[in-house]
């Protein structure tokens, strides 16, 4: 199957990128050689340096025009395909790192206890296979071949936008298709996608959040209008990526490869930053945890890891100051949440009044978190870092303070509602 999918994907890439497919295959081949030479040595960190270098250079040089190679190669710039290759290559970089480190860990003692996992996991104990098992178990050395590696990098259904799947999980399903979803489940998944597309069409025809955001007319609106636009843009972005990722995941499921779900929970059902990032681009979150967070020290260095990871995420998206501002603002907002969580875990409340007080404080903390999240995303995707002073001047004045208070109360009530939804789901599962 790796050969079949490699040929199909090569044809797909030839249409997308034309002559630029040479760049993709050259960088991928160099990475493969680097993995085989130092992937199982103490110099495996060179994989990060190699991939980060190309991630940045691809953006700086705009995908390397062929004219840079000399006048006689300039004519190839007329055959660069229909889609800029260096935009998609961000995902290829993640796959190259995944291949390198899965190869590196395959040469060491595997800490993943497969038998214990099967006993604890409801999916695996029922005869199905969950993503954690596919990712955690070691593969045979011959699986890390050039053919399977290239097939993994340019696998057509997941090539453009993901979801991101680890090499172990992908290679495990090539000859043994996924068992989690039945044919009926896959069909229903596709029908739900069509319904979501109709919802997006309705939203873009009747609500003009993005027009206000892109045109810059938000500068002349009231604080309440800006709050509504900001919240609308967030919901639009969620639905846009939801449709994009579910489309490609559906295509992959039809072909027997299960990738992680990127939007397992609605945007409006997250009341803390940790749950938000676990449910927004969830496959990327899984990748970051496996290949960055745990190797950097995990929970022992959580405060430091957050800064390193979000800086990488910003650079991975694009080289823009507003994205770095978004990343660092998110890190700043993460710090108090982590401190409060640590204090709450250390403080065990037994009395009914104590539990009531903790619940109310949690709702207040949730409202603050959602407000901070909105501010960070407004700076990152609407007003930019240059608009921070303007934003503060509008909301911290007589006209803006009532809007800020109303927004906070709305999020407080919404957080309480999320608590009730969560408890109702637990009661249903417990029956």
Please tell me about this protein's structure:
The chain is mainly α. The chain is 70% helix and 0% strand. The protein has 20 helices and no strands. Helix 2 (21-38) runs antiparallel to helix 3 (46-60), helix 4 packs across helix 8 (146-154) and helix 18 packs across helix 20 (400-430). The chain is globular, with a radius of gyration of 23 Å. The two termini are 43 Å apart. The model has no long low-confidence stretch (mean pLDDT 84). This is Membrane-bound O-acyltransferase gup1 isoform X2. It comes from Nicotiana tabacum (Common tobacco).
Output the keywords.
431 residues; 20 helices; globular; Membrane-bound O-acyltransferase gup1 isoform X2
Précis, in short:
The protein is an all-alpha fold and 431 residues long. The protein contains 20 helices and no strands.
Protein topology:
Elements: H1 2-17, H2 21-38, H3 46-60, H4 85-106, H5 114-120, H6 122-125, H7 131-136, H8 146-154, H9 156-159, H10 167-173, H11 183-206, H12 209-215, H13 223-254, H14 273-279, H15 282-293, H16 302-317, H17 321-346, H18 352-383, H19 388-395, H20 400-430
Helix pairs in contact: 1-8, 2-3, 2-4, 2-8, 3-4, 4-8, 11-13, 12-13, 16-17, 17-18, 18-20
Protein name: Membrane-bound O-acyltransferase gup1 isoform X2
Organism: Nicotiana tabacum (Common tobacco)
Number of helices: 20
Gross geometry: globular
Written as H for each helix and E for each strand, in order along the chain, the element string is HHHHHHHHHHHHHHHHHHHH
First-to-last CA distance: 43 Å
Number of strands: 0
Question: What percent of the residues sit in helical stretches (DSSP H or I)?
Answer: over 70%
Low-confidence stretches: none
Report the C-alpha radius of gyration, rounded: 23 Å
Percent strand: under 5%
Write down the overall mean pLDDT: 84
Broad structural category? mainly alpha
The major sheet is characterized as:
none
Organism: Nicotiana tabacum (Common tobacco)
Protein name: Membrane-bound O-acyltransferase gup1 isoform X2
């Amino acid at each position: 199957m790796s050969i079949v999918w490699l040929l199909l994907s090569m044809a797909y890439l030839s249409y997308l990128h034309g002559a630029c497919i040479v760049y993709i295959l050259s960088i991928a081949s160099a990475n493969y050689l680097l993995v085989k030479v130092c992937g199982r040595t103490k110099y495996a960190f060179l994989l990060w340096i190699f991939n980060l270098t190309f991630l940045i250079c691809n953006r700086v040089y705009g995908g390397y025009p062929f004219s840079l190679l000399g006048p006689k190669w300039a004519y190839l710039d007329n055959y660069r395909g229909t889609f800029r290759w260096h935009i998609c290559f961000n995902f290829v970089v993640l796959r190259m790192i995944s291949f390198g480190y899965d190869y590196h860990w395959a040469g060491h003692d595997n800490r993943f206890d497969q038998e214990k996992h099967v006993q604890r996991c409801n999916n695996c104990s029922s005869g199905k296979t969950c993503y954690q098992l596919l990712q955690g178990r070691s593969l045979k050395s011959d699986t890390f071949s050039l053919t399977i590696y290239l097939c993994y990098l340019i696998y057509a259904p997941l090539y453009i936008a993901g979801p991101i799947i680890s090499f172990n999980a992908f290679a495990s399903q090539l000859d043994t298709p996924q068992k989690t979803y039945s044919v009926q489940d896959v069909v229903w998944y596709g029908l739900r996608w069509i319904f979501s597309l109709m919802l997006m069409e309705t939203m873009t025809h009747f609500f003009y959040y993005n027009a206000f955001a892109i045109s810059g007319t938000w500068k002349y609106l009231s604080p309440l209008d800006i709050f509504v636009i900001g919240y609308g843009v967030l919901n639009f972005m969620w639905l846009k990526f939801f449709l994009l990722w579910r489309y490609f995941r559906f295509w992959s499921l039809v072909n027997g490869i299960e990738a992680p779900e990127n939007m397992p929970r609605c945007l409006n059902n997250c009341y803390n930053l940790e749950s938000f990032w676990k449910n927004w681009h969830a496959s990327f979150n899984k990748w970051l945890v496996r290949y960055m967070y745990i190797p950097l020290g995990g929970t022992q260095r959580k405060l430091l890891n957050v800064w390193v990871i979000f800086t990488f995420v910003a650079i991975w998206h694009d080289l823009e100051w507003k994205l770095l501002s978004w990343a660092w603002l998110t890190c700043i907002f993460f710090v108090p949440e982590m401190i409060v969580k640590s204090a709450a875990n250390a403080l065990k409340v037994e009395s009914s009044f104590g539990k009531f007080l903790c619940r109310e404080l949690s709702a207040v903390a949730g409202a603050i978190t959602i407000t901070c999240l909105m501010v960070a995303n407004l700076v990152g995707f609407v007003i930019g870092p240059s608009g921070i002073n303007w934003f503060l001047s509008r909301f911290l004045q007589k006209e803006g303070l009532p809007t800020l208070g109303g927004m906070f109360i709305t999020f407080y009530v919404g957080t309480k509602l999320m608590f009730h939804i969560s408890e109702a789901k637990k009661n249903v599962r417990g029956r």
